[in-house]
Amino acid sequence: MRCLFISVLLLSAALTAQQAPAPVADPDALPTFVVPDVAKKFKLITYGDIRFTDPSDTKHSNPTERRVIVQKIVDEHPDALMISGDIPYRGSKDEDWQVVDAEIRPYWDAHLRIYPALGNHELAGGAEKGLANFWKRFPELDGKRWYSVLFGNCLFIMLDSNSSLDPQTPEDLWLNKQLNHLPREADFVIFNMHHPPYTDSSAGKFPGGGHDAREQEKRLAAKLEAIQPSLRPRLIVIAGHVHNYERFEHVSVTYIVSGGGGATPYVFDRSPENKYQGGKAPTFHYVVLEIDGPSLKGRMMKLEDAAKGEFKERDAFELRTVPLVEEPAAKPQGKRPAKATSTKPAPAKKRR
Hints:
Number of helices: 7
Number of strands: 13
Order of helices and strands: HEEHEHHEHEEHEHEEEEEE
Oligomer: single chain
Number of domains: 1
Shape: globular
Strand content: 15-25%
Structural class: alpha/beta
Mean pLDDT: 88
Radius of gyration: 21 Å
Helix content: 10-25%
CATH class: Alpha Beta
CATH topology: Purple Acid Phosphatase, chain A, domain 2
């Protein structure tokens, strides 16, 4: 089976430690994967909730829209693709994964680096079989349900929100170590998960209304908002589960719901807190994040006409962080020269 996860991520432990910001004894405090030679200017695309299944099933997924989005993403030539879960409709069913293999072949052919998070539909019909099918397509994960990737000046933290994030659970302990040892060069920390901490959707209006935000994701948001003021990098949380697009900001943490990859759309009223006021219409889409050093520009590309393959930008935002300042070189030790051309230290250089 051909793998979607690019093999360049399979670096030795020595290389990972070498590129980490500081020697740390605990490997859980280091990025799980380090992608070498990534420029500080690159394009990341993110989306989720595709639900690949039999094309004749138009109740649970929309085959025309999901195929058009796949091809458009390929045409964008991103440096990386992040998926927030629900790749198949039924993760335990081999036949649904066969549709996955067929319909995302354009990603294989384009050699995209793909970073997936687990959704609830990856586990549908039986978690053991669903996970086996998932890891078969992403063998580099080697049984991991959560992991991190140092990608240029961004750290991707891929969470499994199907697992417990309660204090002292394995995923919570791992996440705390990651947050306590963020790479010095990271300008942005991008979390990718399935269940959103904020949403205007509601399970009470289902079908058609979506899902409420759950307590464990709300607690995660509170944790991130508590630490964001003390951090140089900006925190961004991307989730799916709600089959629409939303954007929120709390205490300078940006929250994006991108669940418009093809699954049956949810429609709901939007609160004033929602930065996207695009009405109640279905929103098949993907999100582009263009990183240029300490600047990030985001845009949501909505599918307006599937027959024509027509997309339009319907939301845009920009984030900036404080540029990393290189520490000045250490002064030479020993006897000072008899004549010095200047006693004024050179200004520190800013990394661009």
